[in-house]
Amino acid sequence: MVYTLKPKATYLLSTPLQHYSLFLTTPFETAMLPNYTTKLLLVILFSAISQTSFSQNIIYVTQSGAGNMDGSNWTNALKGDHLRDTIWKAPANTSFWIAAGTYKPHPTSKDSSFYVYNRRIDLYGGFAGTETSISQRDIPGNPTVLSGAVHPTDSAQYSDVIIRYDNADSSVLDGFVIRDAHGRTALLNQSQMYETAQSRVFVRNSIFKNNKSIYNSQAAAFINPMAGHAMFHFFNCDFTENYNGAVGIRHGTEYFANRSTIVADSCRFYNNIGNVVVLNGASRTNNSASINLNRCEFKGNSEIQTGAIIMFAPAIYLGQTVPEGVVSLELDSCYFGNNNVSNTVYYFPNMADSSRFLMNNCVIDSNGYSNPSLPYGHGNTAIVMIGRTRTNKNYILNTRINNSSSYYHPAQSTTMAITGQDPGSDSTFIYNVLFNNCQNMNTNIAHQAFNGRKSAVYLVNSTLFKNETSTQRGWRMILNEGINTTGTGAVTHFYIQNSIIWPSTKHWGSITVPKQLINNSVNYSEPGTTRTFIQNSIINTFADGGSIDNIGENLGGNIMQEPIPSM
Q1: pTM of the predicted protein model
Q2: For position 247, what pLDDT does the model report?
Q3: Can you give the residue range of the structural domain that contains 346?
Q4: Could you tell me which of 480, 554, 478, 489 has the C-alpha nearest to residue 516?
């Protein structure tokens, strides 16, 4: 079988959206916009580290071997059966050039792995067996498979882990198909033993396929840091048809002072089952974790029961209250389309010291969820953000959310849910974002776009257009809701500037009527404050007495006029 890496998408947004813009004024809190220079330099730095040229010992490998099989050249290629032991014994800075074929960690044992420990080892696949440089490879034409199918007729005996890295700093894995791990994960990375340990692994031009995990969301690649810094940097990789997740980080409650990083650039995640990219577990004292996804596609993925494509919940299983960790999730120029999941992005930085969520230049389109076996198994929330950190900053920039449909959730159904809770100081900045043709069909409570609870939300230069809600109550385009959780009044501020909020409609049977735009409410018995400020915006006010003053504090420059789309 020939495996082909698909080229990266060309239809992602290349310039910021300029939809329906009628006013050009200074946005609220412009200083909150992030600086991309630092992140770009870090990505370039990591890529440079992974491709640093220096003198390496090369071992040549073919499936059947050749000549005296000492691996000194293609004529005397090492036999594939000896690959595992040779990797284990090889000195630091050894490079393996591996020709097309299928290679297994062990002929019969599921407990064996290709193991790189405490040094840099580079593995390159995609060779025909005649090349004199890495650039001569034809990777799709020479599929090099690292397989866990040690018992081809019994998948229960497939490898638990195919490749394992421990403190293997700057190691490279390039040009492989990694498949058929049925146990823990196909690719495992750990930093352990001491706080200064480094285990950064650069994975390029590879395919992860048909891997299954008995654990949560780690079938293809998994980081389990114990100390020091563990990182995966994926470039131009495919993750397809993996079960119980694709890429994950797990922090254990017993581990201190560790850092975990996943970077994926120009990667494709297709037809996986389970949460696709995950951070979970404990963020304990001085721990930190980050996931950065750049120019990635997510298509045709589905969940096992309930979950998300991106599940970011670093301390969701931990009972402690002050872990002193720092976490971040950044998505840049990513596409999410036709996925069958209840949440597209679920961001829950539970009780970390500080957190940051950034989505820039992304498209979320036509995702939904249908699972008839679950009592409320229908619908999709595009983005869920729940802030429970001391400092929680969220940025959604230059992004489109189209055709998001939420149905039949027992509590609430939203296109975007923004929830800030004690003890956090939360703010969300939404700039140049289009919400179009989104639907909430709920029998309890639904909000078309935002639910700001004990937080500050800034909606600037954005458009909410042609959206629908159908509920028995709570049918608002925006719900500005103060909720207290610790006996103190909630304070929620919602700022709307230079934006268009035009009716979606409320359907009640065969009747279509305009719906209330904004609901300012305070829940529970404690006093609280919810205030909405509106400036230089086009607002539908038909259902609110025809006046901006009825739905928020009018700062001037607002009009009620049918917008004419410019696209």
Answers
A1: 0.82
A2: 75
A3: 148-367
A4: 478
